[in-house]
Amino acid sequence: MPIHILKRNEFEALSTELDTVPDFIEFLNKRKQLIEKGLLFFPTSILDFLAFYKTNPDKVDRIIKHNTTSFSKMGFGQIIKQLRQKYSGQK
């Protein structure tokens, strides 16, 4: 069983965005699948992945299914920037 270590602000963001236990577990399982397949690399923050996961759930499933690494082609950077602004208060 994988271990997920979270900072407090990360856990707070996850618990806000993923408000049920099944949603939280599904999120962690999809992240685990991407890491195991070599499609999600560290140091990709969990909040960066949360932003992509919440705004592109179908794309996450397609990436897992087809083993594609097209995160950058899907606007991942812009989504990350928006989530960081939301949770850090940055403009």
Q: Topology as H/E string? A: HHHHH
Largest sheet features: none
Query: What is the residue-averaged pLDDT?
Result: 79
**Secondary structure: number of strands:** 0
Task: Write a brief structural summary.
The protein is mainly α and 91 residues long. It has five helices and no strands. Helix 1 (8-17) packs parallel to helix 3 (46-55).
Keywords summarizing the entry:
mainly alpha; single chain; 91 residues
Question: Can you put this structure into words, describing what you see?
Answer:
The protein is mainly alpha-helical and 91 residues long. Helices cover 65% and strands 0% of the residues. The chain has helices spanning 8-17, 21-36, 46-55, 57-66, 76-88.
Layout of helices and strands:
Layout: H1 8-17, H2 21-36, H3 46-55, H4 57-66, H5 76-88
